[in-house]
Amino acid sequence: MKTLSVKLLVSVMNRFSLDEETATQLISQALKDQEVISFITDKIGQEKIASSPSLESFKQEKQRREWYSEYKKLEERTRWAMKVSIPEVLIDEDLKRRFSVIECKRIALKRVADHFGVRCTRCNGTGVYVQSTIDDKRCWKCFGYKKFVDYDDLKIRKSIERAVEKDNPFQPLSVGEKE
Question: pTM of the prediction?
């Protein structure tokens, strides 16, 4: 029986391109729902699982968990910039599937810098710093955005939050938006 369950697990992992944890969850869910036909090794059983809504929901749940895991790794000030400038991405699951955390981070930092930043004193507003250790010589203070916001200054954060509450300058996030 143990060999059969390993065969089943490997079969599901290979057929649906899933990791071991997700495949195990899918099999246990399918066994509870009694949807497994011939241990998912025959064509009919595979097609039934492939078309089942539980497979899609498992993939979406896994993607959602990965997105939040990446989001939690960001610095607190970056999460704050995302919350202020693109709050819809934290709510809308469809936007999370379209935009990676890194894309959201770049868009958020650029939006806040464009609207509330001051000219960067390190690169003098060029976005390029010759002594930069980053390969493309991008300024490490403003990240090449030419404007800088001191996210660690709570007074600046509060004034930005008040300005956004009063008159939000940010447009909703769109699919074609670049950093």
Answer: 0.64
